[in-house]
């Protein structure tokens, strides 16, 4: 028996990195999963490898009309949605506030934060039909504190925003059996992190108690728990997965 038997999930940013890992783990545990991403080629290939319980829809998470299309396609394929993992995100430029241009700031806010509002707005009606729901918003350690002058103000602000939205959703929809939690990863071995360490994030590595980056699958274990009914009394909470980085 799978830990997500009977569940219908949307995972955004699922063509690579942590989103890919979460989608794989969800399928393994019996869920039906709609993978979405801007990158159509890898997403289609991955969904085909994962079999009949996986589908892919191309989506820009910043567009409400894309969300409407993804929800309709998921319901048509699998029925009402019970899990949403708002995972898609970008690092954006690593630069000081004075040098951060307004367009870059807006882009980071839009992809990392506004998308999670649009996701909740679009998916909650389906969860209300199902009578149950779990929303897992991927934030960051940067959603709890600023870090070594890295990453940018925009990234920090976007990840604080997702944490606040998570609590608002938990408060509003708890009575409807819909839970919402935020996940705050430290340094995870994904293409985004390779980019980030090139940009100077490498200095932070010495702060990790376990002395290594996490593999994406280690984050999937936490996301799986929060998505499943095993976490039925957990909502409105922050969940750090950082090997002690924030314990200093
Ligand atoms: N890697 C880390 O160490 C780390 C740490 C803390 C938080 N995070 C967060 O975890 C999440 C996943 O990060 P990752 O490291 O797997 O990143 P990644 O760059 O490896 O993957 C992100 C995916 O999101 C997709 N994406 C980007 N913009 C999109 C858009 N507008 N619409 C749809 N899809 C879009 C990309 O195509 C990509 O497939 C992000 O929200 C990131 O901020 C990552």
Task: Describe this entry's structure for a reader.
The protein is of the alpha/beta class and 248 residues long. 44% of the residues lie in helices and 17% in strands. The strands form 2 sheets. It has a 7-stranded parallel β-sheet with strand order 3-2-1-4-5-6-9, sandwiched between helices. Strands 7-8 form a two-stranded parallel ribbon. The N and C termini lie far apart (40 Å). The mean pLDDT is 95. The protein binds nicotinamide-adenine-dinucleotide (NAD). Keywords: Oxidoreductase.
What fraction of the residues are assigned to beta strands by DSSP? Answer: 15-25%
Lateral strand order in the biggest sheet: 3-2-1-4-5-6-9
Task: Give the second-level CATH assignment, the architecture.
Answer: 3-Layer(aba) Sandwich
In terms of structural class, how would the helical and strand content be classed?
alpha/beta
The major pleated sheet works out as:
7 strands, parallel
Instruction: From the 3D structure, determine the CATH topology.
Output: Rossmann fold
Low-confidence stretches: none
DSSP E strands, number: 9
Give a short summary of the structure.
Belongs to the short-chain dehydrogenases/reductases (SDR) family. The protein is α/β, with parallel strands linked by helices.
């Amino acid at each position: 028996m799978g830990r997500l038997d009977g569940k219908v999930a949307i995972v955004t940013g699922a063509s690579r990195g942590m989103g890919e890992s979460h989608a794989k783990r969800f399928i393994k545990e019996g869920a039906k999963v709609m993978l979405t991403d801007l990158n159509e080629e890898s997403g289609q290939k991955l969904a085909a490898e994962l079999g009949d319980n996986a589908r892919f829809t191309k989506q820009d998470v910043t567009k409400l009309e894309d969300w409407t299309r993804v929800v309709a396609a998921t319901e048509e394929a699998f029925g009402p949605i019970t899990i949403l993992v708002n995972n898609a995100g970008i690092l954006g430029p690593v630069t000081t506030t004075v040098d951060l241009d307004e367009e870059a700031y807006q882009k980071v806010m839009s992809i990392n934060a506004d998308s999670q509002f649009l996701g909740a707005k679009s998916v909650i009606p389906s969860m209300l039909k199902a009578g149950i729901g779990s929303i897992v918003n991927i934030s960051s350690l940067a959603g709890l504190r600023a870090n070594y002058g890295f990453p940018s103000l925009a990234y920090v602000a976007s990840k604080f925003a997702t944490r606040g939205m998570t609590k608002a959703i938990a408060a509003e929809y708890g009575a409807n059996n819909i839970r919402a939690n935020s996940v705050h990863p430290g340094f995870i071995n994904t293409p985004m992190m390779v980019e980030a360490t090139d940009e100077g994030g490498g200095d932070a590595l010495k702060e990790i108690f376990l002395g290594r980056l996490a593999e994406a699958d280690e984050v999937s274990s936490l996301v799986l728990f929060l998505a499943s009914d095993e976490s039925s009394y957990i909502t409105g909470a922050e969940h750090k997965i950082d090997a002690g980085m924030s314990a200093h």
